[in-house]
Amino acid sequence: MNMVMKSSLLEELLSGNNVKKNLSVAQLVEKVLSRKEGLLSDTGAVLATTGKYTGRSPEDKFIVKDTFSEGKVDWGKVNQPIDKEIFEKLYKKVIQHLKSQNEIFVFEGFAGADENYRLPIQVINEFAWHNLFAKQLFIRPTEEQLASHIPSFTVISAPTFKADPSIDGTNSEAFILISFEHRVILIGGTEYAGEIKKSIFSIMNFLLPEKNILPMHCSANVGKEGDVALFFGLSGTGKTTLSADPYRLLVGDDEHAWSSSGVFNIEGGCYAKCINLSEEKEPQIFNAIKFGAVLENVVMDEITRKPNFDNTTLTENTRAAYPLEHIDNIVNPSIAGHPNTIIFLTADASGTLPPISKLSKEQAMYHFLSGYTSKLAGTERGVTEPQATFSACFGAPFLPLEPATYAKMLGEKIDQYHTNVFLINTGWTGGSYGIGSRIKLSYTRAMVHAALEGELNNVETIKDEIFGLEIPTHVAGVPDNVLIPKNTWTDKTAYEKQAKDLACQFHENFKKFSHVSPEIAQAGPTFQ
Ligand SMILES: Nc1ncnc2c1ncn2[C@@H]1O[C@H](COP(=O)(O)OP(=O)(O)O)[C@@H](O)[C@H]1O
Ligand SMILES: C=C(OP(=O)(O)O)C(=O)O
Ligand SMILES: [Mn+2]
After folding, report:
1. For the range 149-152, what are the long-range contacts, defined as Cβ-Cβ under 8 Å and sequence gap of 24 or more?
2. For residue range 104-122, what is the model confidence (pLDDT) as tens digits?
């Protein structure tokens, strides 16, 4: 298929009289309700359920291997290749499927808050609630911008179109296919809205490094003095929760980029996990769930329409999507300066990594490449309890290029801007998963606060015997005892075994980074 045919296919679809383009939030909410795609909650949010797929489906995600991607993509389990022919056949089928719908919904906007680097995108949805999600999660254009908007990448999402793997060449009925030639992301078979935003993030991770901009799987906020903080972490580690801070202005909760002028948000909204959400612990997120917000797989009372955030019947991965403006203290547009502090978040289910440690430059590079955390239940299909994982750059599922590309850029930037780096374990304490418990959010918030206020810059530290990490001996608001993992375990032998086991996993995983400098390779756990 050549470019002409490609655009004619899309053009035909977009010129159909079933196309509802750039509807307002109110119009989309009405559509969601009238089409019976969802219900209204007591605070005016719409609530939709997604059936079988309640999390991302990494095994169903592919990148078309063509002249645009072949020599650049780091092919493997994360970046699975698929033939151009398979994509093009499915592309035609999906377009046919959408043409036959009574209505389809189109959002036009941007990925990237910095006007110099933004990507004009369009999102074509079979479901109105997905289009509302896209509107709230991506950057909404002004009327003027809309008038001259020419999309440079298109997401097409047709959840009720199910592939037949034996005919269509997919892995299952669900598929997320990226074509850099056609500049199209084709999604079918899954209703999980997260695929829509994370697939745009994936292509930004391909496109931005070419412009010498570092894309990052992190949240960002700004202090009163204009000091910028980034929070890297895989799903469920606390990016969204910890970046929502009444004392700091929110830039964004999940996807950012670092250019020569500073950081900018890729998105225009947040996508918060809302399992066990409470107004007391997470007031900003709780109060953002109002008219215009989308609740996904949350269960609510049939009569009062009050969400029950403790209910895990549908999934642990319940979500709330809302535009940034639903949070009071934000930076608008979502652009900030160069980061003063970077926090790597890990939800360590082994309960052996210190709750906070200060990293040297080499340790920072080591831990960025390692990307250790535990996958928590729900965000990816098939994960039902914490599972240790090493996800390079704290975002491997979204990185088309080799991890070293991103790591090199981060290293240079940390050097240039003298950024301090901390590792914060938001996971288990007092024992591993099943024995210990997740560290208190209030303690983690106190540690974040101390790190960002510079209170930990020149303080006494103690070196962790197994991981070689420098642990501050005091952090305001946190009992000293909590800071040293071993002290929180009753069974010290069990602690030691668990910690050494994790250290070995680190070493094993790091073997694949054979090209890094010896200083970085040796900055891992001291226990060999
Ligand atoms: N100590 C802690 N630090 C951060 N989050 C915690 C902590 N304890 C429990 N949590 C919960 O873990 C989840 C973190 O999820 P979230 O912030 O959405 O992660 P991410 O944005 O990185 O995917 C939230 O549901 C939060 O309430
Ligand atoms: C939506 C996701 O991201 P996070 O959990 O990091 O918010 C995801 O990984 O599917
Ligand atoms: Mn998040």
Report:
1. 149/108, 149/109, 149/120, 150/120, 151/108, 151/120, 151/121, 151/122, 152/119, 152/120, 152/121, 152/183
2. 999 999 999 999 999 999 9
Render pLDDT for 327-382 as a digit per residue (tens, 0 to 9). 999 999 999 999 999 999 999 999 999 999 999 999 999 999 999 999 887 777 87
Average of per-residue pLDDT across 449-457: 97
Pocket test for ligand 1, best of 198, 219, 241 (most atoms within 8 A of CB): 241
Contact status, residue 282 vs residue 365, Cβ threshold 8 Å: no
Question: Which residue, judged by its Cα, is nearest atom 7 of ligand 1?
Answer: 441
- What are the CA-CA distances from residue 455 to residues 267, 301, 342 (Å)? 31, 45, 15
Q: Check if the beta carbon of residue 464 is closer than 8 Å to that of residue 446.
A: no
Ligand 2 proximity of 395 Cβ (cutoff 6 Å): no
Q: Which residues surround ligand 3, an ion (CB under 5 A)?
A: 239-240, 254
The whole-angstrom separation of Cα 17 and Cα 464 is 65
CA–CA separation, 222 and 340 (whole Å): 10
**Which is nearest to 388 in space by CA: 254, 238, 509, 512?**
509
CA-nearest residue, atom 3 of ligand 2: 235
d(CA 118, CA 110): 6
Q: What is the DSSP string of 263-308?
A: EEES-SEEEEE-TT--TTT-HHHHHH-STT-EEES-EE-TTT--EE
* The model's pTM: 0.96
- Contact 250/324 with Cβ under 8 angstroms? yes
Q: Domains (ranges, CATH) in the chain?
A: 3-37+56-213 (3.40.449.10), 215-269+333-521 (3.90.228.20)
Q: Which ligand 2 atom is nearest residue 271's CA?
A: 7
- Mean pLDDT calculated for residue range 405-410: 97
Give the integer Cα–Cα distance in Å for 417 and 397: 28
Candidates 107, 132, 79; CA nearest to 19 is 107
Whether the CB of 275 sits within 6 Å of ligand 1: yes
The protein residue with its alpha carbon nearest to ligand 1, atom 9, reads: 441
The per-residue DSSP string of 149-167 comes to ---SEEEEEETT----HHH
The single-letter code of the amino acid at 32 is: V
Q: Does the annotation flag 444 for ligand binding? A: yes
Q: What confidence tier does 6 reach under pLDDT thresholds 50, 70, 90?
A: low
217 belongs to the catalytic site: yes
Annotated binding-site residue? 160: no
Asked if 208 contacts 69 with a C-beta cutoff of 8 angstroms, the reply is: no
CB 509 within 8 A of CB 397: no
pLDDT at 457: 94
Given 57, 190, 219, 235, which residue is catalytic? 235
Report the mean per-residue pLDDT for the chain. Answer: 96
The CA distance from 297 to 294, in Å, is: 10
Q: Which class for 155: exposed (0-12), middle (13-18), buried (19 or more C-beta within 10 A)?
A: buried
